[in-house]
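During the reporting period, our protein records have gained a C-alpha cell line. A sample record is set out beneath this paragraph:
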Amino acid sequence: MIIRDWTSDYKELRNATNNFVKKDNIAKLHQIYKNCDGVSSLFQKRSTNALKIAYIAVDEIGLGNSAVIAILLYPLYAEKKIDAASIEKQFGNETAVIVGGLNRIQQLYTKTSAMESENFRKLLLTFAEDVRVIFIMLSERLFEMRNLKEREAEIQQNIARETAYLYAPMAHRMGLYKIKTELEDLSLKFTAPDTYKTIAQKLSESKRSRDAYIERFIGPLNEKVAAAGLSFDIKGRTKSIYSIWNKIKKQNTTFENIYDLFAIRIILDSHPDKEKAECWQVYSIVTDMYQPNPKRLRDWLSQPKANGYESLHTTVMGPEGKWVEVQIRTKRMDDVAEKGLAAHWKYKGLKGENSMDEWLKSLREVLENPELHGNEYMDEFKLNLYDEEVFVFTPNGDLHKLPKGATLLDFAYSIHTQIGSSCIGGKIGGKNVTLKYVLQNGDQIEVLTAPNQHPRADWIKIAVTTKAKQKIRQVIKEYETKEANNGREMLLRRFKNWKIDFDEANLSRLSKKLGFKNITDLYIDISQEKTDLLEFRESYLNLDKKDTPELHESISADTFEKKPTKNGQNDDVLIINNETKGVMYSMSKCCHPIFGDEIFGFVSVSGGIKIHRKDCPNAPQMMSRFGYRIVRAAWSEENGTQSICTLYVIGNDDLGVVTNISSFISKQTDVSMKSISINSDTGLFEGRLVLTVKNTKTLDDIIKKIRSIKGVKSVSRM
C-alpha cells in the first residue's frame, strides 16, 4: 500500500524535477520502501507529506538532487528503516549531512517549546550547518501552513504566530519574497481571521477599478518600451493582505486611505552583459512619461541586497494624481526574487553568491557564544533577518557591508575585534565623529584607536550588529574575570596577613549585605581599590554567623491539590474571579481585557501576572519569545465589575454625529464614558472613546448600535 501510494505521488514530483533526480537513487528508495510493511501510521503520513514538501522545495525554491533525496529519506530514517552510515554509503555525504540536520531539528522541535532559548540556539546552529536545511524547513512550514485549517484552534494559533515571528523573516533573508508573502498572509488568516476577511473582501470589491487603472497606466508605457526594441513583459502586482494590514496599523489609517495597493513590474529578457544598461533605459522611459519621486528611488542594481535581490524601484505620479511604484528587473533577477538564493545555483559567476555564506559565518560566530541569553538570540537574529544594508569604505577603498542603522562602533568591530575594542571615534571627510555615528551609504571612514581604551557596558546600546554586541560582551566579561581574580588574590593575601580564615560562603553573604549583586562584583570593587579593606575586615569579623535566610511556610506535597477545570482536567489554569486569593494579577493596560474575552496570563518581571486578551497586539511577540512565562487563564463568573475599553470611531466630520454618539452612550445604564477625543481631517473625524463596560456582550451591543448611527463609517475596539 505504501509503495503503491508513494510511487503514484512521485510522478508529479518527477515531472517537476525534469527527471534530474538520479534513477539509481530512486531505485534504491523504492527498494527501501518495499520493505516497510507494518510501519506506523505516523510514517505513512510522513512519507506522503515528504513527497509534497519535496515538490514545494523543487518547484517553488529550486532545490536539487541531494536535498530532494534527503526529504524523501527522512521518514525512513525517523522510522529506523535506514541509518546514517547507510545513507552516506548509498546516497553520498551531502545527503547524509542534510538528513542529520533535519533529524536534529525534529528532535529539538515541539510546538510548545521550540522558541525556548537553548532549543532556539541549537535550531539556528543546525540551520547554519547547511543552507539547504533552511530551504527544506521553509518548504515544510509552507506545506504545514497551507494545510493548517485541519489542525486544532490552539495549535493553529501557535504555529501561525511562530511562522510570522521566525519563518517569514527567514524566507525574507533567503530572498524568497513570494513564499515570505504567502507565509505572512496565512499567518494573519489564523491569528486575525476577521481582519484578514475584511481586507480580502475589500480587495475583491475594488479589483475591477484597480485592474482598469493598471491598464490605463500600462497602455502607453507598453508602446514606448516596445518602440525601444526591448523584449519584455509588464504586469501589475497587488499588495499582500499582510502588507496592507501592516500599513493600516503603522499609519493608523483605513483601507480606503491606502493608495499604493499595487505595483507595476517590468521584466526584461536581457543578455547578461546588457542587464543593467537596459534596466536604466526602461527607467528613463518611465520617468520621461511620468513624474518620479526622487526620494523613492531604490537602486539594487549597483548594490544588490545580501540575499541576492537585484531590481530598480521608482515611484511615479500616474493618471488621476496617484503614486505608483514601478519595479524594473530582468528575467534572471525575477527568478532570484522569486526563488531567492537558491536561484543563484543556476547562474554561476554572478554577484551575490557568497552573501549567504557570509551571513551564515556571522550567524555561527554569534551563536557559538555561550554567554548570550536566549531572548537576545531571538531579538538579534530577527534583526539580522530583516535589516537592509549600507555600504561604506575604509581609507584604502575596501568595501564593507553592514546593516542599515549600524554605527561607527559596528564598523570598527567589522574590521577586527581589537580595533573595535580600542576604538575612540573616527574621521569621515576630515570631520571627527563619535562611536554613535550612524553610517551612511558611501562613507569613507578612518577609525581612531587608543591603547588604554576598552569596552564599556553602555557600548552594547550603541552597537547594532550581533557580532559587535557579542564581542563587547565577551571582552567585558574577560576584563571583569581578570579584575575579579586580581581582587580575590588581593583579599586572600590580606586575610593571610591578618590571620583570618578565608571563608568564601561568608564572603558571599557579606557581599550581599553590602549591596553587591554577587561576590564577583565585590572582588572587582576590591581590585579597583574602591573598597576600604580595613573597614571590610571589621564588617567580616562582625558578620552575624546566625544570620539565616527567611523561612517560608511550606506546603506538604501530600496536601497540595490542583483545582480541576470545567472539563475535569487538571490543567494549570488561572481562574479569574473575586475569590482568587494568593495570586497577584492585574488587567493589562495595552488591551484592557473585559469579562467574555479570551484571555491568557503573562508572568511579569515584578512577579505579578498580567491578564491579556488573546488578540492583544503584543500577544504574538509574548507567546513567541516568552512562551515559558505564559499562563492559561479563564473567567470563572461575571462579578459585576466595570472594566475599561477603548473604541476607535471614524465618521463624517459633522458635529451632529459626535453629539449623537455622546447622547446615545449617556443613555446606557451599564455603560459610562470616561473620555472622548476627536480629530478631524479631510471631511472625516477620528474619535477615541474610553468606556467602562461589564462584559463583551454589552460592548458588542454598543459597537453595533454606534455603527447604526448616521454618518458613522466604522467602529472598532482598540
